[in-house]
């Protein structure tokens, strides 16, 4: 489903940083991959490359067989197939929950009003927030807003869901409700790449864990491998700091 070959990315401004250095990885359909690593290690840059929010300087990325770095590829189509959820929920503040979840369905997927509404209500129910359909985002808690953001991404019927620290901005008591929605998605077979510091989630849900440092994949393996006998000193150090 995702095939990343030798991508590199250097930012020049404000100062030169090699954010990704020759990263390769493949993710199979239905696989859940958790990306961990210290701040600044390139996790966000990596995940953002997967839906063309960042463009690598070198390398290739295929999403379900489509070369997304080919100038002829329709990036908007790629983005409908690859949903993304950010740390900051990014809901449209002047639209209701329901409007947030129907807008792109109507504009991008060209669905009729009824169809979009039906789909939105199914998804709001799925994330446990159907009773808030007609309120505005600022009337919701952070956890509720993030669940709406997940519903909004799912409304495009994506083949892949990317999550970049989806619970990092939440109060502790709200982390569980968002992780529960993500666990359900994983169980249903969604292909997912998740950047998170929630090691319980990684242990329980990940098929594979990737540890990044200084723009490179240092180590990857099953959660058992990772949490029981990591090989690299940098992995051990990182885990000792966060566990
Ligand atoms: P992480 O998500 O692991 O914290 P990032 O991918 O955000 O790491 O960042 C990797 C490196 O690239 C960091 O040094 C960061 O400062 C730099 N970086 C990320 N995005 C940009 C950008 N848009 N412009 C300049 N530098 C950036
Ligand atoms: Mg990040």
From TrEMBL:
Domain ABC transporter: 2-239
UniProt-listed Pfam families: ABC_tran
Annotated InterPro entries: AAA+_ATPase, ABC_ATPase_HisP-typ, ABC_transporter-like_ATP-bd, ABC_transporter-like_CS, MetN_ABC_transporter-like, P-loop_NTPase
Superkingdom of source: Bacteria
GO molecular function: ABC-type amino acid transporter activity; ATP binding; ATP hydrolysis activity
Keywords, sorted A to Z: ATP-binding, Nucleotide-binding, Transport
Keyword Transcription regulation part of the UniProt annotation: no
PANTHER family registered for this protein in UniProt: AMINO ACID IMPORT ATP-BINDING PROTEIN (PTHR43166), PHOSPHONATES IMPORT ATP-BINDING PROTEIN PHNC (PTHR43166:SF4)
Family listed: Belongs to the ABC transporter superfamily.
Protein name, entry field: ABC transporter related protein
């Amino acid at each position: 489903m995702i095939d990343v070959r030798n991508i590199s990315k250097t930012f020049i401004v404000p100062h030169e940083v090699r954010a990704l250095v020759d990263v390769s990885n493949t993710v199979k359909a239905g696989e859940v991959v958790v990306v961990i690593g210290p701040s600044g290690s390139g996790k966000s840059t990596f995940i953002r490359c997967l839906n063309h929010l960042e463009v690598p300087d070198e390398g290739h990325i295929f999403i379900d067989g489509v070369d997304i770095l080919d100038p002829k590829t329709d990036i908007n189509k790629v983005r409908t197939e690859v949903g993304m959820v950010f740390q900051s929920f990014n809901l449209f503040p002047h639209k209701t929950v329901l409007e947030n979840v129907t807008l792109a369905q109507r504009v991008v997927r060209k669905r009729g009003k009824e169809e979009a509404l039906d789909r939105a209500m199914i998804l709001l129910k799925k994330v446990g927030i159907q009773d808030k359909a007609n309120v505005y985002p600022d009337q919701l808690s952070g956890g509720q807003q993030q669940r709406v953001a997940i519903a909004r991404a799912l409304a495009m019927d994506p083949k892949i869901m990317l999550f970049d620290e989806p619970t990092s901005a939440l109060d502790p008591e709200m982390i569980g409700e968002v992780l529960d929605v993500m666990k359900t998605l994983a169980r249903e077979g969604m292909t997912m790449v998740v950047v998170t510091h929630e090691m319980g989630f990684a242990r329980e849900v990940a098929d594979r864990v990737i540890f990044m440092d200084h723009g490179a994949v240092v180590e990857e393996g099953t959660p058992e491998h990772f949490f029981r006998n990591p090989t690299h000193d940098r992995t051990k150090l990182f885990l000792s700091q966060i566990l």
